[in-house]
Amino acid sequence: MPRIKICGIRTFEEARWAVEAGADALGFIFVPYSKRYIKPETAREIILRLPPWIGKVGVFAQESPKNVSQIIRGCPLDTLQLHGNEDPRLYHHLPVIKIKALSLPPVPDSASDADPTSQSFLAQFRGLPPASLHGILLDSALQGMAGGTGAPLPWHTPEFQDLLRRVKNLGYPLILAGGLSPDNVLEAIRLTQPYGVDVSSGVERDGRKNREKIQHFISRIRKEPPL
């Protein structure tokens, strides 16, 4: 059964909803231009009130290792999610788990060297020092947005399945994001067999986290595991 992360938490109430529903981890977005941005001091207040054994993930994009380190010291995060074009090697010294996100277009083009499906792009993840990377997250990119788009990845297509095979061959746990919702998460899990799933917009209503949607998303996975 995959682990579940609810991302884009902005209030303690949202965090409580996710924890009570059975989430394994919560994501806090420290990307200033994101509509789900949270100030480090606000995230700290929420995190300090969480029960034990809940993962605390800080999401960053194009942030310097120095600034990331300062936020990690201020907020008791246990996981760092890099969502830009960062080199994971630059963050290897930070004492947290590291996840690197790959933002993919809805229809990957395996023939393009600039596309994340290309061998040259994936080659950057081979031979990394052990402390540099602990997991790879696949997300959808749409209209300049590198996450939280609500656009599902094309899990069923041969092109995506080929990419999935090559990413898994790198040997890192795979986390699936990109347009997940209570309605499609079981199919997505069945087609990709991820280590974990990551949802944000799929459990929102009118741009805010919704308690019923969070509960529905998690209960679908916990009570109806895909074959």
Automatic annotation (TrEMBL):
<comment type="pathway">
    <text>Amino-acid biosynthesis; L-tryptophan biosynthesis; L-tryptophan from chorismate: step 3/5.</text>
</comment>
<dbReference type="GO" id="GO:0000162">
    <property type="term" value="P:L-tryptophan biosynthetic process"/>
</dbReference>
<keyword id="KW-0057">Aromatic amino acid biosynthesis</keyword>
<dbReference type="InterPro" id="IPR044643">
    <property type="entry name" value="TrpF_fam"/>
</dbReference>
<dbReference type="InterPro" id="IPR001240">
    <property type="entry name" value="PRAI_dom"/>
</dbReference>
<keyword id="KW-0028">Amino-acid biosynthesis</keyword>
<feature type="domain" description="N-(5'phosphoribosyl) anthranilate isomerase (PRAI)">
    <location>
        <begin position="4"/>
        <end position="219"/>
    </location>
</feature>
<keyword id="KW-0822">Tryptophan biosynthesis</keyword>
<dbReference type="Pfam" id="PF00697">
    <property type="entry name" value="PRAI"/>
</dbReference>
<comment type="similarity">
    <text>Belongs to the TrpF family.</text>
</comment>
<dbReference type="InterPro" id="IPR013785">
    <property type="entry name" value="Aldolase_TIM"/>
</dbReference>
<dbReference type="InterPro" id="IPR011060">
    <property type="entry name" value="RibuloseP-bd_barrel"/>
</dbReference>
<dbReference type="GO" id="GO:0004640">
    <property type="term" value="F:phosphoribosylanthranilate isomerase activity"/>
</dbReference>
<protein>
    <recommendedName>
        <fullName>N-(5'-phosphoribosyl)anthranilate isomerase</fullName>
        <ecNumber>5.3.1.24</ecNumber>
    </recommendedName>
</protein>
<keyword id="KW-0413">Isomerase</keyword>
